[in-house]
Amino acid sequence: MPNWEIMFSPHPRPLPRARERGARGPHPRPLSHKERGVRLFLVRAGGLCGGMPSRREFIRWPSRRPSAMLVTGIMVLALLLAGCAGVGSQTGAGSRSGAANDKHPSHGAQPILLGKAAPGTTLALSLVLRGQSPAELQQVLAAVSDPHSPSYRQYLTPAEIASRFGASAQDKARIAGVLQAAGWPAPSYSADGLLASLRVTVGQAETFFSVRLNRYRASDGRVYIAPDAAPRIPAAFAGAVVGVLGLDGRNVLHTGALLAPHHSSVSGVNGLGPSDIERAYDLGPLHQAGLSGANQTIALAEIDMFNQADIQAYDQQYSINAPAPQVVQVGDGANSVSPEPELDIEVAQAIAPQANILVYESPKDLLSVAQMVSQIVSDDRAQVLSISLGTCEAQLDPSIANSFLTSLDNSFRRAGAEGMSVLVASGDSGAYDCQDSQLSVGAVAASPYVTSVGGTALFLHTDGTYNYEAGWEGPLKQAGGGGGLSTIYQLPSWQSGPGVQNTASDGMRQVPDVSADADPLTGYAVYYADSGCRQQCWQVVGGTSAATPLWAALVLLINQSAQQHGKHPLGFLDPALYRLGSGAGAGVTAPLPFHDVTIGGNLYYDATPGWDYSTGWGSPDGAVLARDLLNAQ
């Protein structure tokens, strides 16, 4: 049983802030009169029911009556302790209000070594290629994103990108020669020429990459193959091949749709519906101007399947006449279900009901996801890509991290160069993406070539219009909007503006860039027919994986307006967003295009004026954002 202490504070955030050893963060700021109140802190030694150690649990009431708080606090503590007794020695017991698809298995559960992999077992591998002139591709991306450049939004076609920046004929010939000498088959190349795929045996791979491949059983019972050390890329590949994917079959990527308790509601309605989202984020002027996503396409990167009947039930409830989503299978496709695809599709349709939705589905392993993202960009069928999956930086094994992230960054750079906007969920574990006591961020969301979307808790007026937002944090669930400092990527040149340089800054990439409602307690109405429902399968769902398709669909509406006015798609968003956030962009007039969130946090970092690690620049004022981004062209 954990040790508890009840503590009161006149502030809605703990002062001083609880910090892990070696952690960095901004100094606590003075509170405005609107933020003052009483918050109850349940300080524990050891985690909630044996969970994460040395953390503070807290609940806020807008009350200044400590006597009433004491009674409430004792009742809450009794309930918490009773809950702990119910779970006994089990750690991290799940519930319907947590991740619906067990996206947070215990990271302390180590896989079981089953022995050496059979030498004759077949493996699917992809060599990750450097390509031609990566520095020049970086310059192209910067130029098409710079309003002062003559190449501003003069995007390249996928064929032009493959020709200029894919693998050269000489590199392909060299690779073929090395593989032939080893007795391997000739590879097939992705459309961009940066993934060379082939099938070999375990024995061949062990000899070629100087590794031993073992079989493991994961905590969920799945058996996979992984190397015992980082693979060695043959010297003959120097300058052409930078990594290999497929030797490690672990499923380290997860989605983030979070189901709220069934009693959750917003403005008397179980979850935010299309009209609620429209009023909250000022989308009415866009819809009234005829913007519905027509002739626009959004791609969703998924590792789970969805049920089309769920989408039809959602559309019927809200009288949406939308094109049916199209499924594009990558490799063997997805083989599991979760509320994530339904959430992505339904939120996108709520905002852009006439948009075409391409649902790319792949297995969960890193090779398959890298191939999926590469295919989405090469297909060039979508103007916007929404990604609601990820893994924390620190938990990517060094033997695979470089290969995986290099492949993704290759695809993300190409996406920006061809005019595609990429938005990625920042994660749902607050400032602790690895779900331990160390500050960490999501590896995919930290890429400097994507727009990282964080989370807020949204509060509306009684008429459904926007009231205010707070940085989303749920200490009792160890949940919140992902944000913090990357340990992999350096601070990009475009990331500047009020709040960006702060006491925590260390020269590395900072996330998120923007945010929107993600708290399951103020979440979205989603129809998801899982095994726990019979007839009425409505759920209230949150997570930054809800905020991400919201932003993606809004970008789609703005692209539609740009098309109608003879302008180009927005493409890589971050440079423009930071110009707008800093007030330095062309065409920026008051009001600003973001709701600046200045209360709440993400379990460690406070939401502050300007940019912050909890909410980035804040959530969108849709009509103003559209005006400013279009005027800047």
Give the tags.
633 residues; four-stranded antiparallel beta sheet; eight-stranded mixed beta sheet; 29 strands; globular; alpha+beta
Structural class: alpha+beta
Q: How much helix, percentage-wise, in residues? A: 25-40%
Number of helices: 14
Distance between the termini: 60 Å
Number of strands: 29
| Rg from alpha-carbon coordinates | 24 Å
What is the mean predicted local confidence, pLDDT?
A: 84
Please summarize the sheet with the most strands. 8 strands, mixed
Query: What overall geometry do the principal axes of the alpha carbons give?
Result: globular
What amount of the residues lies in strands? Answer: 15-25%
Low-pLDDT residue intervals, each spanning 5 or more residues: 1-108, 263-269
Description:
The protein is an alpha+beta fold. The protein has 14 helices and 29 strands. The strands form 9 sheets. Strands 13, 14, 15, 16, 18, 19, 20 and 25 form an 8-stranded mixed beta sheet that branches. A 4-stranded antiparallel beta sheet has the order 6-7-5-10. β8 and β9 (223-227) form a beta hairpin. The termini are far apart. Residues 1-108 and 263-269 have low confidence and may be disordered.
Summarize the structure.
The chain is built from 14 helices and 29 strands. The protein is of the alpha+beta class and 633 residues long.
Layout of helices and strands, plus pairs?
Elements: E1 3-9, E2 38-45, E3 56-61, H1 66-87, E4 112-116, E5 122-129, H2 134-144, H3 158-165, H4 169-181, E6 188-189, E7 195-201, H5 202-209, E8 213-217, E9 223-227, E10 241-245, E11 254-255, E12 258-259, H6 274-280, H7 284-288, E13 297-302, H8 308-317, E14 326-329, H9 340-351, E15 356-361, H10 366-379, E16 384-387, E17 389-390, H11 398-417, E18 421-425, E19 451-460, E20 466-471, E21 473-474, E22 479-480, E23 484-490, E24 508-511, E25 514-517, E26 524-527, E27 538-542, H12 544-564, H13 574-581, E28 594-595, E29 619-620, H14 622-631
Parallel strand pairs: 13-15, 13-16, 14-15, 16-18, 18-19, 19-25
Antiparallel strand pairs: 1-2, 2-3, 4-8, 5-7, 5-10, 6-7, 8-9, 11-17, 12-27, 19-20, 21-22, 23-24, 26-27, 28-29
Helix pairs in contact: 2-11, 6-9, 8-9, 9-12, 10-11, 12-14
